[in-house]
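We were asked to recover a plausible sequence for a given structure. The inputs and outputs are reproduced exactly as logged, with field labels preserved.

PROBLEM: sequence recovery
POSITIONS: 281
GIVEN STRUCTURE:
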């Protein structure tokens, strides 16, 4: 699941199996820090696993992380926001990458997140995908523009009350976007070859939004109405409904495009794929 077109919304509900870090022998202890005496201090590193959850009504297929996928992680004071004021151990927006061993590891040594030494100091973790280097420390957020990039975005629910005695943290990621798919069918009197080269687009939909990394909420730009071409047969969409949305079909050799206005009350939900089967005659 790299920063590329999203490929695993289809028609079956599934949950990516949880990857238990303990199975892979995650090493968490580092005894390289001098204590000022003969015995070195030890510190405990975060171990990360992640799964992707879907709403009960979602129609999706099995999905999995791909090697090199990077997530951003924040370690914060218990119950606090992932802003500069409440970050613990300078662990603001640390990059962790999915590896061949099936676990997330620090992208670089400097990305390693270390738990506080005091087990009485509880911390929370927040994560998102894909990792973005430039995140504001006062108002952490992500800018989404589907016209510029068909990249899926995920946000993980807060994992609370953690300390060094249980360093394995499992994130549950949820999709922030939906998907629209179109299947064109040649009806009676039309040769299927006439659909070769057909182009489909979705017009009149919002294309820009801001995702708050505090709680994963989306602020959709209502003035960003635009057109999204369907690459292959699908496009990512922001959760939304409303009037003025249309599927536009352009056929080779036909001067006038065909247009079908979508019902205004049809809501495109995050984590769900809406499939339209359109028969042309």
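RECOVERED SEQUENCE:
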């Amino acid at each position: 699941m790299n920063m590329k077109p999203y490929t695993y919304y289809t028609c079956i509900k599934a949950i990516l199996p949880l990857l238990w870090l303990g199975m892979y022998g995650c090493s968490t202890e580092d005894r390289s820090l001098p204590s000022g005496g003969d015995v070195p201090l030890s510190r405990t590193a975060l171990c990360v696993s992640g799964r992707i959850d879907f709403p009960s009504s979602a129609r999706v297929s099995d999905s999995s992380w791909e090697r090199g996928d990077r997530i951003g992680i924040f370690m914060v004071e218990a119950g606090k926001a992932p802003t500069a004021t409440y970050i613990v151990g300078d662990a603001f927006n640390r990059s962790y990458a999915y590896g061949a061993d099936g676990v997330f590891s620090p992208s670089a040594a400097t990305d390693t997140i270390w738990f506080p030494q005091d087990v009485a100091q509880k911390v929370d973790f927040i994560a998102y995908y894909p990792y973005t280097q430039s995140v504001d420390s006062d108002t952490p957020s992500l800018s989404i523009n589907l016209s510029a990039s068909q990249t899926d975005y995920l946000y993980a629910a807060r994992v609370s009350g953690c300390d060094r005695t249980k360093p394995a943290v499992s994130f549950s990621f949820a999709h922030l976007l939906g998907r629209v798919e179109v299947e064109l069918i040649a009806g009676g009197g039309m040769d299927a070859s006439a659909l070769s080269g057909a182009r489909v687009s979705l017009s009149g939909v919002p294309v820009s939004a801001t995702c708050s990394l505090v709680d994963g909420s989306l602020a959709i730009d209502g003035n960003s109405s635009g057109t999204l071409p369907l690459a292959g047969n699908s496009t990512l969409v922001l959760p939304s409904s409303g009037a003025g949305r249309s599927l536009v079909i352009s056929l080779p050799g036909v001067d006038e495009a065909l247009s079908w206005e979508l019902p205004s009350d049809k809501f495109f939900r995050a984590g769900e794929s809406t499939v339209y089967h359109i028969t042309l005659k």
